[in-house]
Amino acid sequence: MSEYGLVCTNIKKKYQRLSLELDFSILKGELVSIIGPSGSGKSQILRLISGLEPPDSGKIFINGDDVTNLRTEQRNAPIVLPDFALFPNMNVEKNIAYPMRQTHLSKEEKRAEVRRYIEMVTLSGFEKRPIDELSPIEKCKTALARALAAGPAVLLLDEPLSSLDANERLAMRSEIKEIQKKSGITTIFISNDQEEALSIADKVIVIKSGKIEQMGNAEDIYRRPCSEFTATFTGECNILPYDVILKTLRVPETERSKVIYQCFGPEHKLLFRPEDMVVNDIPGLPFPEFFPHLRFENARITRCEYLGKEYLITALYDGLTIKVYTEFKPSSDTITAGIRLNRILEFNDGKLIRH
Asked: What is the sign of the dihedral through the CA atoms of 182, 185, 191 and 194?
């Protein structure tokens, strides 16, 4: 297991309202995001890895060493918490130096290390600043530098950007990714912002009710979700009954299409992303470049949301709700939208069967 920074094998932990079951491996130096609904067990996973809680069964390995029975201070897996848990009676410099108090470094070596981490998180000039005078993003950087100063084998980030505004989150997630790549530290990043989690990670773990629903790179999670749950949790999507094909397919019937487009029952569904659709608001306008495709003609617009760079249109077609993204605001109260067949996923009983 020398190539793995973290391995959780057959981990089980029962809580009052949740049962965790985990079995996954993370390569050394990877940054892995964990996403899932509130109460699905994300933070509990970090507590098990860090040693704050013991598993009921299973084993945890960090850099090949079995740490299952080691105390928290022996695991070298610090957690950066949402509130950062900084020491209010210490300034920035002393907070960052705190994990080095038990090391054999000289005072000058410690000062040099503190300077290095301060520069790494771009906090130069803040060394003597009291914690209560820091902005949320400055507190986040201080907490990250303090965790790095511990020389972690695994770095655990529990929603560290939750107190930041949108622009600060965007800037800080880029910094975290850059710092993590430079340091090469195996890192787990928890976020309730799916876009944030997908953008920052080498791999993503989707958690549902304490169990891993899917693990893979961000593109696989988004483009090839293994279940309806993963698809809907990672972004806007359309999920329609399979027999909508019979009403919307605009392609000459062949022996092949007769076989492919049979309806297999009420649990057989189609799924596609709103950004993959082509839209127009001129009734009858053909999509000559779009064959073969499904076409939702004259769908009635029920909502039009301006998102800055585009509009999210919600429309009704034959009693079914569809969502599409479009650069331009529709000029009428209906749209016609089309989707390529190769952008459609098929699910049966909630599980992916064809893509």
From this structure: positive
The stretches of the chain forming alpha helices (DSSP H) are 42-50, 72-75, 92-97, 107-120, 136-149, 166-183, 194-200, 218-223, 228-233, 244-248, 255-260
What is the pLDDT at residue 255?
45
**Residue 33 in contact with residue 180, Cβ under 8 Å?**
no
Please give the DSSP secondary-structure letter assigned to residue 310: S
Q: CA dist 8 to 54, 188, 191, Å?
A: 12, 13, 20
Bridge partner residues of 338 (DSSP): 278, 295
Query: Token match 């993959």: residue?
Result: 276
Residues in the chain: 355
Three-class SS state of 76: coil
* pTM listed for this prediction: 0.89
Confidence category of residue 249, pLDDT binned at 50, 70, 90 = confident
Residue type, 179: I
Name the packing angle between helices 166-183 and 136-149 (round to 10°): 20
73 C-beta neighbours (distance < 10 Å), count? 10
In single-letter form, the type of residue at position 39 comes to G
The residues, any chain, with a CB within 8 Å of residue 304's CB and separated by 6 or more, are 311, 312, 313, 314, 329, 330
Write the burial class of residue 12 (CB in 10 Å: 0-12 exposed, 13-18 middle, 19+ buried): middle
pLDDT in tens, 138-149: 999 999 999 999
pLDDT in tens, 213-229: 999 999 999 999 999 99
Q: Of 314, 310, 334, which is closest to residue 323 (Cα–Cα)?
A: 314
Tell which residue, 3, 22, 119, has the closest CA to residue 64. Answer: 3
Contact 272, 339 (CB under 8 A): yes
Rounded distance between C-alpha atoms, residue 17 and residue 278, angstroms: 44
CA angle 23, 27, 32 (to 5 degrees): 75
Q: What is the pLDDT of residue 258?
A: 47
| Domains with residue ranges and CATH for the chain | 4-226 (3.40.50.300), 238-354 (2.40.50.100)
pLDDT for the residue 106: 87
